[in-house]
Design goal:
The structure holds two protein chains of two kinds. By secondary structure, chain A is an all-alpha fold. Helices cover 67% and strands 0% of the residues of chain A. Chain A is globular. Chain A starts with 13 loop residues before the first helix and ends with a helix. Chain B has two domains: 109 residues, Roll (Ubiquitin-like (UB roll)), CATH 3.10.20; 131 residues, Alpha-helical ferredoxin (Fumarate Reductase Iron-sulfur Protein, Chain B, domain 2, Orthogonal Bundle). Chain B starts with a strand and ends with a helix. Classes of the chains: A mainly alpha, B alpha+beta.
């Protein structure tokens, strides 16, 4: 197949076109300079107000975008290269904000970061073969002078008046672990036996989590042109913060991403290799969260597809999506894995179940679900209550993050609309697209409903108006399914003619806006961290 | 107002409890929630039934004794308000109100709505005090304290130890209570002398009592009748880190 020769971007002389771009770029740059001068007025600190932030992002974005376009014109760069560059910028931004968080954020600033760390350190000791016997006897000889998780070590509490009374079995660690990050870190470092090695392990967990996340995105972006919306969302500093700090939650999302991608990208007819990869990705996800069960449906899906019974496959997936996670979620609720409520009869899950069986109870649950659903669209809640640790996200930061996502959505829509043969592509891909949409939608709704149901039964008091304990980030696996949906479409054909001439400036300016907004968001993150902790 | 109450009844710590329905036909909107329970109890006593046991003391929102889950929320539906300061005008005529004791493994039910909150006392006993001689009130006033520190310490000192944070947390964590006490004392010069030992001992005691780890959902801050911030939890973590590093 041969492509037609690339036409001129616009039917105007090249030099004049470049001059116009540079002129608008200079004008935009002057807006940035004005915004900076505004910031330099007394007291002379860069605490961007809303207007100067908007000027910085829009002016800066436009000038960078036009500069990129001018460079492309001058060097004869292609539209495809410009699109790849935008994703590379997103990856680079993710890396920069991740490194900034790792470097600037002192340990244990998130209220529950210590718990995640001690789960990890507990698992790390599991891989130290010489300690297995000691672990099995429930008396791990830890001498790490950290605050121990109550299941690990009480001897470390030097100066504590407590006697040695608490021991817990090793399996109780199982639910919350981030296996890949910890296994990789354990390959790099010996088990922590002193304060200094524990520190090293702590930072290794952060670095490995970020590295895994970057690798997964890089691999996926090499295989297919992922939608920019997905890239934008997972590159946000608030998301990266979770990947870096709360590694067990990051890993479930990473596992979900890899598992979904394998299901969708695996060459057909299937071989056992992608099935094994999916199974490993699902295994990598933490097992302690209700949404883990939804991922296991993907393995069942691939196995049945490999066997070659399409009707049985779809029927099983449909039933599995509904039943398996429900069973898993309810089992988790009744087991009350945390054991925090078990001795208090009033907190017995059977009370809530009995209440649910009544019409009144069901109404209360539906009302609580509605209340929860109202908040799903709030971007800030996807970060969970972490914010940037104990410092809430400021409104300028939030605006920058919203600009990032909005720019990406506009870009994706524009790219799809500008693509030649969109109708033909949609017609060709319709059955596949609808099937994926149905599964992705069902998975998202199942994730939402079951996370809420598990928390309602297990942790919410009778007659409560809201579901206690659900964090929006629990819905990430379901969201990943929706985000990868465009992959069901066949690759876009090469754009030609006017569409291409319009698409290139759109991509360039979107890139510029993206860079400016990400610069602003990352600088705000850095400023917040430095102001809070240094 | 005519109300229907679903109240948790449990005769002793070891018996099995259940929700029992009562009618409350003559409730004034101006009553406090505890006064409404008093009226219901008078009716029960008149009928020869066992009155509902519930904790109360000052009834002016500063002792933390009144601790009920009302329609699934610690201290009821009004923000920044204790049960004793909650008035019936917050409810509607004909409402059904579910009343349970605070929910936590570390707070075992003693009877009906009364739970044992002695673990909080033991956490305070583990280090929530100043044992050095700081002189009398004039001596205290002679110590210069930055305004921000004083404000932070006062914010933390507002904790009344009611246990709402524990009851609201899905992991029954006492992190907010413990951190408020640690932060309160560690922020002031009088409390800094023993800050390391205090952080170690109080956190150890909290673990020992069976409270869960922080779940990071901010439910504790939302339920707290005094608006204690989760920032203190992070501050307590830093205090612990400091103690560990200094002792290592």
């Amino acid at each position: 197949m041969s492509y037609p020769p690339r036409p001129r971007p616009l039917p105007v002389p090249r030099r004049r076109w470049v001059a116009v771009q540079l002129g608008i770029g200079a004008l935009s740059a002057s807006i940035v300079v004005a915004a900076l001068l505004q910031e330099l007025r007394p007291p002379g600190r860069f605490t961007f107000d809303d207007w100067s932030a908007l000027g910085f992002v829009l002016g800066g974005g436009l000038s960078i975008g036009l500069a990129l376009l001018a460079v492309d014109e001058w060097r004869g760069g292609s539209l495809e290269a410009a699109q790849r560059r935008l994703r590379s910028i997103a990856l680079a931004a993710l890396a920069v904000s991740g490194v900034a968080i790792i470097a600037l954020l002192p340990p244990f600033q998130g209220p529950d970061e210590d718990a995640h760390f001690y789960f990890a350190i507990g698992r790390l000791r599991f891989f130290d073969r010489s300690d297995i016997e000691a672990l099995q006897s429930h008396a791990p000889p830890m001498d790490v002078a950290f605050r121990p998780d109550r299941k690990i070590d009480t001897q470390a509490l030097r100066g504590s008046p407590l006697a040695e009374e608490k021991t817990t079995t090793l399996p109780s660690y199982g639910g919350m672990l981030s296996y890949p990050a910890v296994v990789l870190a354990s390959l790099l470092l010996a088990p922590a036996r002193s304060l200094s090695t524990a520190w090293a392990f702590f930072y290794a967990c952060r670095v490995v989590s970020l590295g895994l996340w970057l690798l997964a995105l890089y691999w996926l972006s090499r295989r297919r042109a992922l939608p920019m919306t997905l890239f934008a969302f997972v590159s946000l500093p608030l998301f990266v913060q979770q990947s870096v700090v709360v590694s067990s939650d990051a890993i479930v999302n990473l596992g979900a991403l890899v598992a979904f991608a394998t299901v969708l990208l695996a060459p057909r007819p299937l071989t056992w290799r992608p099935i094994a990869l999916t199974a490993i990705a699902v295994f990598c996800a933490t097992t302690g969260k209700p949404h883990m069960a939804i991922l296991s449906v993907l393995v069942v899906w691939l196995v049945l597809e490999r066997i070659g019974r399409p009707r049985v496959t779809w029927l099983t997936v449909a039933i599995g999506v509904l039943l398996l996670p429900a069973f898993y979620s309810l089992a988790l609720s009744f087991l009350d894995l945390s054991g925090a409520h078990t001795l208090n009869g009033a907190a017995d899950a059977s009370q809530q179940v009995a209440f649910l069986r009544t019409g009144e109870g069901l109404d209360a649950f539906v009302a609580a679900l509605r209340e929860r659903w109202k908040h799903v669209g709030f971007l800030v809640l996807w970060a969970g209550p972490l914010g940037w640790m104990d410092t809430p996200i400021g409104s300028p930061q939030l605006v920058a993050l919203e600009v990032l996502v909005t720019t990406a959505i506009v870009y994706d829509v524009a790219a799809a609309a500008l693509g030649d043969g969109l109708r033909a592509r949609l017609r060709t891909a319709a059955p596949r697209l609808m099937a994926y949409a149905a599964v992705a939608g069902a998975l998202f709704m199942a994730t939402f409903l079951l996370s809420c149901l598990a928390m309602y039964v297990g942790h919410t008091p009778v007659h409560a108006r809201f579901v206690q304990g659900v964090q929006t980030r629990y819905l990430f696996p379901g969201l990943v399914g929706l985000a990868i949906l465009p992959l069901a479409m066949p690759p876009a054909p090469r754009m030609i003619g006017t569409a291409r001439a319009v698409a290139h400036p759109v991509v360039a300016i979107a890139s510029g806006l993206w860079i400016a907004a990400m610069l602003y968001a990352t600088s705000e993150l850095t400023h917040t961290l430095i102001a809070r902790y240094y | 107002m005519k109300l229907t109450l679903k109240v948790w009844r449990q005769t002793s710590a070891k018996s099995r409890g259940k929700l029992v329905e009562y009618a409350a036909p003559d409730v004034s909107p101006d009553m406090s929630f505890l006064e409404m329970l008093d009226v219901v109890n008078e009716g029960l006593i008149a009928k020869g039934e066992e009155p509902i046991a519930f904790d109360h003391d000052c009834r002016e929102g500063i002792c933390g004794a009144c601790s009920l889950m009302i329609d699934g929320e610690a201290h009821g539906p009004e923000n920044l308000t204790t049960t004793c300061q909650l008035h019936m005008r917050k409810f509607n005529d004909g409402d059904t109100i579910t009343i349970e004791p605070f929910r936590a493994r570390a707070f075992p039910v003693i009877k009906d709505l009364v739970v044992d909150r002695a673990p909080f006392d033991r956490i305070i006993a583990a280090g929530g005090y100043v044992s050095v001689s700081t002189g009398s009130a004039p001596d205290g006033n002679a110590i210069p304290i930055p305004k921000d520190d004083a404000e932070t310490a006062m914010d933390a000192a507002q904790c009344i130890g009611c246990g709402a944070c524990v009851a609201a947390c899905k992991n029954a964590s006492a992190a907010l209570f413990v951190s408020a006490k640690i932060a309160h004392l560690a922020t002031l010069p009088q409390g800094r002398v023993e800050r390391e030992a205090r952080a170690l001992s109080m956190l150890a005691q909290a673990d020992h009592e069976g409270f869960g780890g922080c779940t990071n959902t901010n439910a504790c801050e939302a339920a707290c009748p005094k608006g204690i911030s989760v920032s203190f939890i992070a501050q307590a973590n830093r205090e612990y880190l400091r103690a560990v590093v200094k002792k290592a």
